[in-house]
Amino acid sequence: MSDSYSGDQVPAGVRADAFSDKGASNIAKQLQLARPFVVAVCLTCLTSFSAFGQVWLKLPENVTDPAGGRLLAATGSRFRDAPLNWRSLGLVPPPNNGIATLAREGMDGNGVSSPLLSSSNFSIRFAAFSLAPPNKAWASLNVTRVAGFNQTRANERVPAATHNSDTLTWHGITLYGTYDIGIGWVSHGLPQSPYNYGSSSLVNRNAAGSRFLVEPNNLSQTGVGVEGTEKFAPGWAVVFNASTGINPHSGQLANASASFIKDNGLPRADYSEALDGVRAGQPLNDEYFGGISSTMFGTLTFGRQRALGTDTMLLYDPVSGGYAFSYIGDSGTMAGGGDTEDTRWDDAMKYRLTYGPVHFGAMYKFANGTGGCYSASANWTATTCTKENPHNNAYGFNLGGEVLKFSSDFVYQHYNQAIGVLNPLLGPTSLTQPYQSTTDSINTNTINGPNLIGTDNTVYGIVTDNNAIMATAKYVWDPLKFYAGYEYIWQNNPKNPLGVGATDQGGYLMSGVEDNTLVKEKLVQIWWEGIKYTYRTKTDVTLSWYEERQNDFRSPPTCSVAAGFRSSCAGTLDEGSLYTDHHFTKRFDGYAGLAYSFVTGGLAIAIPHGPGVPYIHNSNFAPTIGGRFTF
After folding, report:
1. What is the reported pTM?
2. Phi, psi of 464 (to 5 degrees)
3. Quick one: which of 610, 519, 622 has its CA closest to 199?
4. Which sign, positive or negative, has the C-alpha torsion 93, 95, 99, 100?
5. Closest listed residue to residue 553, CA positions, set 513, 573, 527, 524
6. 202 vs 200: CA distance, rounded Å
7. Rounded CA separation 563/583 (Å)
8. Of 75, 149, 312, 378, which is least surrounded by CB within 10 A?
Protein backbone atom coordinates (compact mmCIF):
# COMPACT_ATOMS: atom_id res chain seq x y z
CA MET A 1 0.00 0.00 0.00
CA SER A 2 1.20 3.26 -0.11
CA ASP A 3 -0.22 5.19 2.46
CA SER A 4 2.35 6.06 3.29
CA TYR A 5 1.99 9.18 2.88
CA SER A 6 4.12 10.44 1.54
CA GLY A 7 6.02 13.49 2.53
CA ASP A 8 8.84 15.43 1.13
CA GLN A 9 10.49 16.97 4.11
CA VAL A 10 12.94 15.67 6.62
CA PRO A 11 15.01 17.30 9.35
CA ALA A 12 17.70 19.31 7.68
CA GLY A 13 19.75 20.39 10.65
CA VAL A 14 20.17 23.91 9.34
CA ARG A 15 22.05 26.36 11.49
CA ALA A 16 21.96 30.13 10.92
CA ASP A 17 23.63 32.88 12.91
CA ALA A 18 21.75 36.13 12.63
CA PHE A 19 22.88 39.50 13.94
CA SER A 20 20.72 42.61 14.24
CA ASP A 21 21.56 45.73 12.25
CA LYS A 22 20.98 49.39 12.85
CA GLY A 23 17.32 48.98 11.95
CA ALA A 24 16.68 47.16 15.20
CA SER A 25 16.80 50.36 17.19
CA ASN A 26 13.90 49.40 19.43
CA ILE A 27 15.67 46.26 20.57
CA ALA A 28 18.89 48.11 21.17
CA LYS A 29 17.15 50.74 23.26
CA GLN A 30 15.48 48.11 25.42
CA LEU A 31 18.75 46.32 25.97
CA GLN A 32 21.01 49.26 26.75
CA LEU A 33 20.28 48.94 30.42
CA ALA A 34 20.01 45.18 30.37
CA ARG A 35 22.77 42.62 30.56
CA PRO A 36 24.18 41.97 27.06
CA PHE A 37 23.25 38.56 25.83
CA VAL A 38 23.40 35.89 23.23
CA VAL A 39 20.28 33.75 23.05
CA ALA A 40 19.85 30.45 21.31
CA VAL A 41 16.41 29.52 20.13
CA CYS A 42 15.85 26.00 18.74
CA LEU A 43 12.95 25.81 16.33
CA THR A 44 11.43 22.63 14.99
CA CYS A 45 9.27 23.31 11.96
CA LEU A 46 8.11 20.19 10.11
CA THR A 47 6.80 21.43 6.78
CA SER A 48 5.44 20.02 3.63
CA PHE A 49 6.11 22.93 1.35
CA SER A 50 8.34 22.55 -1.68
CA ALA A 51 12.05 23.03 -1.20
CA PHE A 52 11.79 26.06 -3.44
CA GLY A 53 9.24 28.02 -1.46
CA GLN A 54 9.23 29.70 1.90
CA VAL A 55 8.06 28.64 5.28
CA TRP A 56 7.16 30.92 8.16
CA LEU A 57 8.97 30.08 11.36
CA LYS A 58 6.92 31.33 14.24
CA LEU A 59 8.40 32.50 17.54
CA PRO A 60 6.14 32.66 20.58
CA GLU A 61 5.78 35.98 22.32
CA ASN A 62 7.84 36.96 25.34
CA VAL A 63 11.16 35.36 24.41
CA THR A 64 13.45 36.23 27.32
CA ASP A 65 17.02 35.86 28.46
CA PRO A 66 17.99 34.24 31.80
CA ALA A 67 17.59 37.59 33.57
CA GLY A 68 14.06 37.97 32.30
CA GLY A 69 14.84 40.58 29.68
CA ARG A 70 12.63 40.49 26.60
CA LEU A 71 14.54 39.79 23.41
CA LEU A 72 12.23 40.09 20.44
CA ALA A 73 9.77 42.98 20.32
CA ALA A 74 10.60 45.18 17.35
CA THR A 75 8.94 45.86 14.05
CA GLY A 76 10.98 45.65 10.87
CA SER A 77 14.15 44.41 12.55
CA ARG A 78 16.53 42.83 10.05
CA PHE A 79 18.82 39.95 10.75
CA ARG A 80 21.83 39.04 8.65
CA ASP A 81 22.71 35.46 7.87
CA ALA A 82 26.46 35.40 8.46
CA PRO A 83 28.22 32.04 8.00
CA LEU A 84 25.53 29.85 6.47
CA ASN A 85 26.15 28.53 2.98
CA TRP A 86 22.57 27.85 1.98
CA ARG A 87 23.33 26.18 -1.34
CA SER A 88 25.85 23.84 0.24
CA LEU A 89 22.92 22.33 2.13
CA GLY A 90 20.96 21.76 -1.06
CA LEU A 91 18.54 24.56 -0.19
CA VAL A 92 17.54 27.79 -1.84
CA PRO A 93 18.72 30.89 0.06
CA PRO A 94 16.12 33.30 1.39
CA PRO A 95 15.32 36.35 -0.74
CA ASN A 96 17.20 39.66 -0.64
CA ASN A 97 20.62 38.05 -0.96
CA GLY A 98 20.41 36.15 2.26
CA ILE A 99 18.66 38.87 4.26
CA ALA A 100 15.56 37.58 6.02
CA THR A 101 13.12 40.09 7.46
CA LEU A 102 11.76 39.52 10.94
CA ALA A 103 8.45 41.27 11.39
CA ARG A 104 6.09 41.16 14.33
CA GLU A 105 2.37 40.45 14.24
CA GLY A 106 0.25 43.08 15.89
CA MET A 107 1.20 46.32 17.57
CA ASP A 108 2.46 44.85 20.80
CA GLY A 109 5.42 42.93 19.39
CA ASN A 110 4.00 39.50 20.12
CA GLY A 111 4.04 36.53 17.80
CA VAL A 112 7.15 37.25 15.77
CA SER A 113 7.35 35.41 12.43
CA SER A 114 10.03 35.13 9.79
CA PRO A 115 9.92 33.71 6.26
CA LEU A 116 13.09 31.64 5.95
CA LEU A 117 13.38 28.21 4.35
CA SER A 118 10.99 25.43 3.50
CA SER A 119 12.93 22.88 5.48
CA SER A 120 12.81 21.88 9.11
CA ASN A 121 14.69 21.86 12.39
CA PHE A 122 16.23 25.31 12.18
CA SER A 123 18.65 26.17 14.95
CA ILE A 124 18.90 29.97 14.99
CA ARG A 125 21.04 32.16 17.22
CA PHE A 126 19.97 35.77 17.66
CA ALA A 127 22.42 38.35 19.02
CA ALA A 128 21.77 42.00 19.83
CA PHE A 129 24.19 44.91 20.13
CA SER A 130 24.51 46.85 23.37
CA LEU A 131 26.95 49.26 24.92
CA ALA A 132 29.17 46.48 26.24
CA PRO A 133 30.63 43.31 24.70
CA PRO A 134 28.13 40.45 24.86
CA ASN A 135 28.68 37.72 27.40
CA LYS A 136 27.79 34.06 27.09
CA ALA A 137 24.49 34.10 28.94
CA TRP A 138 22.22 31.67 27.12
CA ALA A 139 18.45 31.52 27.16
CA SER A 140 16.62 28.35 26.19
CA LEU A 141 13.10 28.15 24.83
CA ASN A 142 10.89 25.25 23.81
CA VAL A 143 9.18 25.97 20.52
CA THR A 144 6.73 23.30 19.39
CA ARG A 145 5.30 23.15 15.91
CA VAL A 146 1.60 23.75 15.45
CA ALA A 147 -0.28 20.61 14.47
CA GLY A 148 -1.65 20.82 10.98
CA PHE A 149 0.96 23.35 9.93
CA ASN A 150 4.55 23.04 8.79
CA GLN A 151 4.23 19.31 9.28
CA THR A 152 5.30 16.40 7.14
CA ARG A 153 2.52 15.17 4.90
CA ALA A 154 2.65 11.88 3.14
CA ASN A 155 3.73 12.45 -0.41
CA GLU A 156 2.43 15.98 -0.50
CA ARG A 157 4.55 19.07 -1.16
CA VAL A 158 2.14 21.65 0.13
CA PRO A 159 2.57 25.08 1.68
CA ALA A 160 2.11 25.63 5.36
CA ALA A 161 -0.86 27.67 6.49
CA THR A 162 0.80 30.98 7.14
CA HIS A 163 0.59 34.64 6.23
CA ASN A 164 2.78 34.02 3.20
CA SER A 165 1.07 35.67 0.22
CA ASP A 166 2.26 32.78 -1.92
CA THR A 167 -0.21 30.39 -0.26
CA LEU A 168 -3.96 30.11 -0.66
CA THR A 169 -4.57 31.47 2.83
CA TRP A 170 -7.44 33.55 4.12
CA HIS A 171 -7.84 34.50 7.79
CA GLY A 172 -5.54 31.67 8.90
CA ILE A 173 -7.21 29.00 6.73
CA THR A 174 -5.17 27.49 3.90
CA LEU A 175 -6.27 25.39 0.92
CA TYR A 176 -3.61 23.01 -0.42
CA GLY A 177 -3.39 20.12 -2.84
CA THR A 178 -1.33 17.92 -5.14
CA TYR A 179 -1.82 16.36 -8.57
CA ASP A 180 0.61 13.57 -9.52
CA ILE A 181 0.26 11.29 -12.55
CA GLY A 182 2.51 9.47 -15.02
CA ILE A 183 2.91 6.71 -17.56
CA GLY A 184 4.62 3.41 -16.83
CA TRP A 185 5.45 0.01 -18.25
CA VAL A 186 5.45 -3.18 -16.18
CA SER A 187 6.96 -6.52 -17.10
CA HIS A 188 4.20 -8.29 -15.13
CA GLY A 189 1.11 -6.28 -14.35
CA LEU A 190 -2.68 -6.00 -14.26
CA PRO A 191 -5.18 -3.57 -15.80
CA GLN A 192 -5.61 -0.37 -13.82
CA SER A 193 -8.54 -0.04 -11.43
CA PRO A 194 -10.47 3.22 -10.96
CA TYR A 195 -10.18 2.74 -7.18
CA ASN A 196 -6.50 1.81 -6.99
CA TYR A 197 -4.36 4.70 -5.74
CA GLY A 198 -1.03 2.87 -5.56
CA SER A 199 1.62 2.28 -8.16
CA SER A 200 1.90 -0.88 -10.29
CA SER A 201 5.67 -1.05 -9.89
CA LEU A 202 5.74 -3.48 -6.94
CA VAL A 203 5.59 -7.21 -7.77
CA ASN A 204 1.93 -8.33 -7.72
CA ARG A 205 0.65 -11.75 -6.68
CA ASN A 206 -1.89 -11.94 -9.51
CA ALA A 207 -0.03 -10.01 -12.24
CA ALA A 208 0.49 -11.71 -15.58
CA GLY A 209 1.67 -10.08 -18.83
CA SER A 210 3.54 -6.90 -19.64
CA ARG A 211 1.61 -3.70 -20.36
CA PHE A 212 1.69 0.09 -20.50
CA LEU A 213 -0.37 1.81 -17.78
CA VAL A 214 -1.45 5.20 -16.54
CA GLU A 215 0.31 5.36 -13.18
CA PRO A 216 -1.19 7.51 -10.40
CA ASN A 217 0.50 9.05 -7.38
CA ASN A 218 4.08 8.05 -8.13
CA LEU A 219 5.81 10.50 -5.76
CA SER A 220 2.79 12.00 -3.98
CA GLN A 221 -0.79 11.13 -3.23
CA THR A 222 -3.06 13.29 -5.37
CA GLY A 223 -5.53 15.08 -3.13
CA VAL A 224 -6.81 18.26 -1.61
CA GLY A 225 -7.02 19.58 1.94
CA VAL A 226 -7.67 22.54 4.16
CA GLU A 227 -5.97 23.51 7.40
CA GLY A 228 -6.34 26.36 9.82
CA THR A 229 -5.17 27.95 13.04
CA GLU A 230 -6.77 30.50 15.33
CA LYS A 231 -4.91 32.13 18.19
CA PHE A 232 -7.14 32.53 21.24
CA ALA A 233 -4.61 33.41 23.97
CA PRO A 234 -0.93 34.35 24.16
CA GLY A 235 1.00 31.29 23.01
CA TRP A 236 -2.16 29.22 22.44
CA ALA A 237 -4.08 28.34 19.29
CA VAL A 238 -6.76 25.97 18.06
CA VAL A 239 -5.79 24.07 14.91
CA PHE A 240 -7.39 21.69 12.43
CA ASN A 241 -6.57 19.77 9.27
CA ALA A 242 -8.84 17.93 6.82
CA SER A 243 -7.55 16.20 3.68
CA THR A 244 -8.43 13.42 1.28
CA GLY A 245 -6.81 11.40 -1.49
CA ILE A 246 -8.17 11.24 -5.04
CA ASN A 247 -7.23 8.98 -7.94
CA PRO A 248 -5.99 11.34 -10.67
CA HIS A 249 -6.78 8.89 -13.49
CA SER A 250 -10.43 8.33 -12.56
CA GLY A 251 -11.52 11.10 -10.21
CA GLN A 252 -12.65 8.48 -7.66
CA LEU A 253 -11.78 8.80 -4.00
CA ALA A 254 -8.87 6.54 -3.08
CA ASN A 255 -10.53 3.26 -2.06
CA ALA A 256 -8.41 0.18 -1.40
CA SER A 257 -11.36 -1.94 -0.25
CA ALA A 258 -13.31 -1.25 -3.44
CA SER A 259 -10.26 -2.25 -5.51
CA PHE A 260 -10.59 -5.74 -3.96
CA ILE A 261 -14.39 -5.89 -3.95
CA LYS A 262 -14.71 -5.24 -7.68
CA ASP A 263 -12.86 -8.56 -8.22
CA ASN A 264 -15.15 -10.57 -5.91
CA GLY A 265 -16.52 -13.57 -7.77
CA LEU A 266 -14.19 -13.20 -10.76
CA PRO A 267 -11.61 -15.75 -11.89
CA ARG A 268 -8.01 -14.81 -11.25
CA ALA A 269 -7.38 -14.08 -14.93
CA ASP A 270 -9.97 -11.27 -14.83
CA TYR A 271 -8.54 -9.38 -11.87
CA SER A 272 -7.48 -5.75 -12.14
CA GLU A 273 -5.00 -3.83 -9.97
CA ALA A 274 -5.93 -4.02 -6.28
CA LEU A 275 -4.33 -3.24 -2.93
CA ASP A 276 -5.01 -3.38 0.77
CA GLY A 277 -4.91 0.04 2.38
CA VAL A 278 -6.18 2.50 4.93
CA ARG A 279 -7.86 4.77 2.37
CA ALA A 280 -11.23 3.09 1.84
CA GLY A 281 -13.39 5.71 0.16
CA GLN A 282 -13.90 7.86 3.26
CA PRO A 283 -14.79 11.45 2.32
CA LEU A 284 -11.66 12.48 4.22
CA ASN A 285 -9.48 9.40 3.78
CA ASP A 286 -6.16 11.04 4.70
CA GLU A 287 -6.55 12.97 7.96
CA TYR A 288 -9.30 14.79 9.80
CA PHE A 289 -8.38 16.21 13.18
CA GLY A 290 -8.51 19.22 15.43
CA GLY A 291 -6.79 20.25 18.63
CA ILE A 292 -4.91 22.77 20.70
CA SER A 293 -1.32 23.89 20.28
CA SER A 294 0.86 25.64 22.85
CA THR A 295 4.27 27.07 22.13
CA MET A 296 5.46 25.91 25.53
CA PHE A 297 3.50 22.72 26.25
CA GLY A 298 3.21 21.06 22.85
CA THR A 299 0.31 20.09 20.61
CA LEU A 300 -2.61 17.77 21.36
CA THR A 301 -4.97 16.72 18.55
CA PHE A 302 -7.87 14.29 18.19
CA GLY A 303 -9.41 12.56 15.15
CA ARG A 304 -8.22 10.51 12.20
CA GLN A 305 -4.45 10.94 12.11
CA ARG A 306 -1.32 9.40 10.67
CA ALA A 307 0.35 6.87 12.93
CA LEU A 308 3.71 7.74 14.46
CA GLY A 309 5.30 5.08 12.27
CA THR A 310 3.88 6.79 9.19
CA ASP A 311 5.24 10.17 10.27
CA THR A 312 8.69 8.68 10.80
CA MET A 313 8.69 6.69 7.56
CA LEU A 314 8.01 9.86 5.58
CA LEU A 315 10.98 11.59 7.20
CA TYR A 316 13.51 8.80 6.76
CA ASP A 317 12.49 7.06 3.56
CA PRO A 318 14.82 8.35 0.80
CA VAL A 319 11.77 8.41 -1.53
CA SER A 320 9.56 10.07 1.14
CA GLY A 321 6.96 7.33 0.74
CA GLY A 322 6.53 7.73 -3.03
CA TYR A 323 4.48 4.78 -4.29
CA ALA A 324 6.36 4.13 -7.54
CA PHE A 325 9.87 3.89 -6.08
CA SER A 326 9.46 2.95 -2.39
CA TYR A 327 8.42 -0.45 -1.06
CA ILE A 328 7.76 0.90 2.44
CA GLY A 329 5.64 3.67 0.91
CA ASP A 330 3.64 1.44 -1.42
CA SER A 331 3.23 -1.48 0.97
CA GLY A 332 2.61 0.38 4.24
CA THR A 333 3.41 -2.74 6.29
CA MET A 334 6.29 -0.96 8.01
CA ALA A 335 4.52 2.36 8.58
CA GLY A 336 1.47 0.58 10.00
CA GLY A 337 3.51 -1.55 12.38
CA GLY A 338 2.60 -4.81 10.65
CA ASP A 339 -0.49 -4.02 8.55
CA THR A 340 -0.95 -1.38 5.91
CA GLU A 341 -4.45 -0.58 7.19
CA ASP A 342 -2.93 0.87 10.34
CA THR A 343 -0.96 3.73 8.78
CA ARG A 344 -3.77 6.02 9.96
CA TRP A 345 -5.73 5.67 13.19
CA ASP A 346 -9.36 6.71 13.64
CA ASP A 347 -10.57 8.06 16.99
CA ALA A 348 -6.97 8.77 17.98
CA MET A 349 -5.24 11.30 20.22
CA LYS A 350 -1.75 12.47 19.29
CA TYR A 351 0.61 14.54 21.43
CA ARG A 352 3.77 16.23 20.14
CA LEU A 353 6.42 18.14 22.10
CA THR A 354 9.73 19.63 20.98
CA TYR A 355 12.45 20.87 23.32
CA GLY A 356 15.61 22.12 21.67
CA PRO A 357 16.99 19.39 19.39
CA VAL A 358 14.81 16.65 20.95
CA HIS A 359 11.20 15.80 20.12
CA PHE A 360 8.69 13.40 21.67
CA GLY A 361 5.41 11.97 20.49
CA ALA A 362 2.69 9.76 21.97
CA MET A 363 -0.49 8.42 20.40
CA TYR A 364 -3.52 6.44 21.58
CA LYS A 365 -6.42 5.01 19.58
CA PHE A 366 -9.78 4.22 21.16
CA ALA A 367 -11.65 1.04 20.20
CA ASN A 368 -14.34 1.58 17.60
CA GLY A 369 -16.57 -0.24 15.10
CA THR A 370 -18.31 -3.60 15.56
CA GLY A 371 -16.85 -7.00 16.39
CA GLY A 372 -19.22 -9.26 14.42
CA CYS A 373 -20.13 -12.78 15.56
CA TYR A 374 -19.23 -16.43 15.00
CA SER A 375 -20.85 -19.85 15.20
CA ALA A 376 -19.28 -22.94 16.67
CA SER A 377 -21.38 -24.97 14.27
CA ALA A 378 -21.01 -25.26 10.52
CA ASN A 379 -24.72 -24.47 10.25
CA TRP A 380 -24.89 -20.73 10.75
CA THR A 381 -28.05 -19.14 12.11
CA ALA A 382 -28.79 -15.89 13.87
CA THR A 383 -29.45 -17.80 17.12
CA THR A 384 -26.13 -19.69 17.06
CA CYS A 385 -24.01 -16.65 16.25
CA THR A 386 -22.08 -15.49 19.31
CA LYS A 387 -21.38 -11.75 19.43
CA GLU A 388 -17.81 -10.45 19.56
CA ASN A 389 -16.76 -6.98 20.74
CA PRO A 390 -14.18 -4.68 19.15
CA HIS A 391 -10.93 -4.35 21.08
CA ASN A 392 -9.00 -2.54 18.35
CA ASN A 393 -7.31 0.02 20.57
CA ALA A 394 -3.70 0.97 19.85
CA TYR A 395 -0.88 3.09 21.25
CA GLY A 396 2.58 4.25 20.28
CA PHE A 397 5.57 6.39 21.27
CA ASN A 398 8.22 8.32 19.35
CA LEU A 399 11.52 9.80 20.52
CA GLY A 400 13.99 11.53 18.24
CA GLY A 401 16.53 14.27 17.90
CA GLU A 402 19.16 15.96 15.81
CA VAL A 403 22.83 16.78 16.31
CA LEU A 404 24.43 18.93 13.65
CA LYS A 405 23.68 17.12 10.36
CA PHE A 406 22.70 13.78 11.92
CA SER A 407 19.12 12.96 12.93
CA SER A 408 17.50 9.82 14.31
CA ASP A 409 14.10 8.60 15.52
CA PHE A 410 12.81 5.59 17.45
CA VAL A 411 9.18 4.43 17.38
CA TYR A 412 7.21 1.75 19.23
CA GLN A 413 3.66 0.82 18.18
CA HIS A 414 1.10 -1.70 19.45
CA TYR A 415 -2.19 -2.44 17.66
CA ASN A 416 -4.89 -4.91 18.75
CA GLN A 417 -7.13 -6.67 16.22
CA ALA A 418 -5.16 -5.41 13.23
CA ILE A 419 -6.80 -6.43 9.94
CA GLY A 420 -5.09 -7.48 6.73
CA VAL A 421 -7.40 -7.91 3.73
CA LEU A 422 -6.68 -10.88 1.48
CA ASN A 423 -7.74 -11.83 -2.03
CA PRO A 424 -11.23 -11.41 -3.50
CA LEU A 425 -14.02 -13.74 -2.43
CA LEU A 426 -15.49 -16.67 -4.31
CA GLY A 427 -18.32 -16.07 -6.73
CA PRO A 428 -20.34 -17.60 -9.57
CA THR A 429 -17.49 -17.47 -12.09
CA SER A 430 -14.68 -18.49 -9.75
CA LEU A 431 -16.00 -21.65 -8.09
CA THR A 432 -13.37 -23.80 -9.78
CA GLN A 433 -10.54 -21.53 -8.66
CA PRO A 434 -8.49 -22.31 -5.51
CA TYR A 435 -9.70 -19.34 -3.49
CA GLN A 436 -10.97 -19.16 0.04
CA SER A 437 -14.66 -18.98 0.85
CA THR A 438 -16.19 -17.12 3.76
CA THR A 439 -15.15 -18.76 7.02
CA ASP A 440 -15.80 -18.82 10.71
CA SER A 441 -13.70 -16.30 12.59
CA ILE A 442 -12.70 -18.66 15.40
CA ASN A 443 -12.23 -22.14 13.95
CA THR A 444 -12.03 -21.36 10.20
CA ASN A 445 -15.02 -23.62 9.45
CA THR A 446 -16.48 -22.79 6.07
CA ILE A 447 -19.93 -21.25 6.23
CA ASN A 448 -21.93 -23.94 4.44
CA GLY A 449 -25.38 -22.50 4.98
CA PRO A 450 -26.72 -19.08 3.98
CA ASN A 451 -24.29 -16.33 4.84
CA LEU A 452 -25.24 -14.02 7.66
CA ILE A 453 -23.18 -11.41 5.87
CA GLY A 454 -23.44 -11.47 2.08
CA THR A 455 -20.30 -11.52 -0.02
CA ASP A 456 -21.42 -8.54 -2.10
CA ASN A 457 -19.48 -5.40 -1.23
CA THR A 458 -17.66 -7.12 1.65
CA VAL A 459 -14.05 -8.13 2.33
CA TYR A 460 -12.13 -11.09 3.76
CA GLY A 461 -9.23 -10.71 6.14
CA ILE A 462 -6.82 -12.03 8.77
CA VAL A 463 -6.72 -10.56 12.30
CA THR A 464 -3.61 -10.31 14.49
CA ASP A 465 -2.26 -8.39 17.47
CA ASN A 466 0.85 -6.47 16.36
CA ASN A 467 3.91 -4.95 18.02
CA ALA A 468 6.67 -3.07 16.20
CA ILE A 469 9.92 -1.27 17.04
CA MET A 470 11.54 1.04 14.48
CA ALA A 471 14.93 2.80 14.39
CA THR A 472 15.91 5.32 11.71
CA ALA A 473 18.82 7.59 10.84
CA LYS A 474 19.73 10.30 8.35
CA TYR A 475 22.97 12.16 7.68
CA VAL A 476 23.50 15.21 5.45
CA TRP A 477 26.86 15.57 3.73
CA ASP A 478 26.42 18.21 1.07
CA PRO A 479 25.29 17.54 -1.62
CA LEU A 480 24.43 14.03 -0.42
CA LYS A 481 21.85 12.77 2.06
CA PHE A 482 22.11 9.25 3.51
CA TYR A 483 19.10 7.32 4.87
CA ALA A 484 18.75 4.06 6.78
CA GLY A 485 16.07 2.35 8.82
CA TYR A 486 15.09 -0.93 10.45
CA GLU A 487 11.88 -2.30 11.93
CA TYR A 488 11.16 -5.48 13.87
CA ILE A 489 7.51 -6.62 13.93
CA TRP A 490 6.00 -9.50 15.89
CA GLN A 491 2.44 -10.70 15.29
CA ASN A 492 0.24 -13.15 17.23
CA ASN A 493 -3.29 -14.44 17.00
CA PRO A 494 -5.57 -11.85 18.58
CA LYS A 495 -6.27 -12.08 22.27
CA ASN A 496 -9.83 -10.99 21.46
CA PRO A 497 -10.99 -12.42 18.11
CA LEU A 498 -13.26 -10.70 15.63
CA GLY A 499 -16.31 -12.29 14.04
CA VAL A 500 -17.99 -12.31 10.66
CA GLY A 501 -19.69 -8.96 10.21
CA ALA A 502 -16.91 -6.98 11.92
CA THR A 503 -16.25 -3.54 10.44
CA ASP A 504 -13.11 -2.75 8.50
CA GLN A 505 -11.73 0.54 7.15
CA GLY A 506 -14.36 2.79 5.60
CA GLY A 507 -17.19 0.93 7.34
CA TYR A 508 -16.95 -2.11 5.04
CA LEU A 509 -18.14 -5.38 6.61
CA MET A 510 -16.05 -8.53 6.74
CA SER A 511 -17.89 -11.60 5.43
CA GLY A 512 -14.84 -13.77 6.12
CA VAL A 513 -12.52 -13.44 9.13
CA GLU A 514 -9.62 -15.57 10.36
CA ASP A 515 -8.28 -15.15 13.89
CA ASN A 516 -6.19 -18.30 14.34
CA THR A 517 -3.94 -18.43 11.28
CA LEU A 518 -0.63 -18.32 13.20
CA VAL A 519 0.62 -21.64 14.56
CA LYS A 520 3.39 -19.72 16.29
CA GLU A 521 4.56 -16.13 16.47
CA LYS A 522 5.16 -14.44 13.12
CA LEU A 523 8.28 -12.28 12.96
CA VAL A 524 8.84 -9.69 10.24
CA GLN A 525 11.97 -7.61 9.67
CA ILE A 526 12.14 -4.66 7.29
CA TRP A 527 15.20 -2.57 6.52
CA TRP A 528 16.12 0.01 3.97
CA GLU A 529 18.94 2.30 2.92
CA GLY A 530 19.27 5.03 0.35
CA ILE A 531 21.18 8.04 -0.88
CA LYS A 532 19.96 11.27 -2.44
CA TYR A 533 22.19 13.55 -4.53
CA THR A 534 21.09 17.15 -5.15
CA TYR A 535 22.46 18.83 -8.25
CA ARG A 536 22.34 22.64 -8.28
CA THR A 537 19.38 22.72 -5.87
CA LYS A 538 16.77 21.78 -8.48
CA THR A 539 17.54 18.17 -9.39
CA ASP A 540 17.50 15.18 -7.04
CA VAL A 541 18.83 11.73 -7.95
CA THR A 542 17.75 9.02 -5.48
CA LEU A 543 18.93 5.42 -5.17
CA SER A 544 17.32 3.13 -2.57
CA TRP A 545 16.94 -0.52 -1.58
CA TYR A 546 14.28 -2.19 0.61
CA GLU A 547 13.90 -5.71 2.01
CA GLU A 548 11.22 -7.51 4.01
CA ARG A 549 11.98 -10.87 5.59
CA GLN A 550 9.66 -13.14 7.56
CA ASN A 551 10.37 -16.20 9.70
CA ASP A 552 9.08 -19.73 9.23
CA PHE A 553 6.03 -19.81 11.47
CA ARG A 554 4.79 -23.22 10.33
CA SER A 555 4.74 -26.10 12.77
CA PRO A 556 6.22 -28.45 11.78
CA PRO A 557 8.35 -26.32 9.43
CA THR A 558 7.75 -28.36 6.25
CA CYS A 559 8.77 -25.65 3.82
CA SER A 560 10.57 -26.73 0.68
CA VAL A 561 10.04 -27.01 -3.03
CA ALA A 562 9.14 -30.67 -2.58
CA ALA A 563 6.80 -30.10 0.37
CA GLY A 564 5.18 -27.07 -1.22
CA PHE A 565 5.51 -23.59 0.23
CA ARG A 566 2.80 -21.90 2.26
CA SER A 567 2.49 -18.25 3.21
CA SER A 568 3.60 -19.30 6.70
CA CYS A 569 7.03 -20.29 5.36
CA ALA A 570 10.08 -18.05 5.58
CA GLY A 571 10.57 -15.72 2.63
CA THR A 572 11.84 -12.36 1.39
CA LEU A 573 10.63 -9.44 -0.70
CA ASP A 574 13.18 -7.02 -2.18
CA GLU A 575 12.84 -3.81 -4.17
CA GLY A 576 15.44 -1.43 -5.58
CA SER A 577 14.74 1.89 -7.29
CA LEU A 578 16.54 4.73 -9.02
CA TYR A 579 14.87 7.95 -10.16
CA THR A 580 15.53 11.60 -10.97
CA ASP A 581 13.24 14.44 -9.90
CA HIS A 582 13.74 17.88 -11.47
CA HIS A 583 11.95 20.99 -10.14
CA PHE A 584 11.12 23.23 -13.07
CA THR A 585 9.39 25.64 -10.69
CA LYS A 586 8.59 25.50 -6.99
CA ARG A 587 5.12 24.22 -7.93
CA PHE A 588 5.90 21.82 -10.76
CA ASP A 589 8.44 19.01 -11.03
CA GLY A 590 8.98 16.12 -13.41
CA TYR A 591 10.45 12.71 -12.61
CA ALA A 592 11.62 9.54 -14.33
CA GLY A 593 12.95 6.32 -12.89
CA LEU A 594 12.63 2.59 -12.54
CA ALA A 595 11.99 -0.03 -9.87
CA TYR A 596 12.71 -3.74 -9.73
CA SER A 597 11.15 -6.07 -7.14
CA PHE A 598 11.04 -9.83 -6.49
CA VAL A 599 9.75 -12.29 -3.87
CA THR A 600 10.90 -15.70 -2.61
CA GLY A 601 9.65 -18.48 -0.31
CA GLY A 602 6.52 -17.92 1.75
CA LEU A 603 6.17 -14.32 0.61
CA ALA A 604 5.77 -15.61 -2.96
CA ILE A 605 2.47 -17.31 -2.05
CA ALA A 606 -0.53 -15.45 -3.45
CA ILE A 607 -3.29 -17.31 -1.59
CA PRO A 608 -2.32 -18.11 2.00
CA HIS A 609 -4.22 -21.40 2.36
CA GLY A 610 -2.89 -24.88 1.81
CA PRO A 611 -1.80 -25.91 -0.56
CA GLY A 612 -0.30 -22.52 -1.29
CA VAL A 613 -1.17 -20.81 -4.56
CA PRO A 614 1.99 -19.06 -5.78
CA TYR A 615 2.48 -15.73 -7.51
CA ILE A 616 2.05 -15.99 -11.25
CA HIS A 617 5.41 -14.21 -11.62
CA ASN A 618 7.92 -13.62 -8.82
CA SER A 619 9.39 -10.38 -10.15
CA ASN A 620 8.47 -7.09 -11.80
CA PHE A 621 10.45 -4.46 -13.68
CA ALA A 622 8.75 -1.06 -13.90
CA PRO A 623 10.07 2.18 -15.47
CA THR A 624 7.90 5.26 -14.85
CA ILE A 625 7.83 8.88 -16.02
CA GLY A 626 5.48 11.61 -14.82
CA GLY A 627 4.89 15.04 -13.36
CA ARG A 628 3.55 16.62 -10.19
CA PHE A 629 1.92 19.97 -9.46
CA THR A 630 1.30 21.34 -5.97
CA PHE A 631 -0.55 24.35 -4.63
Report:
1. 0.75
2. -140, 165
3. 622
4. negative
5. 524
6. 6
7. 52
8. 378
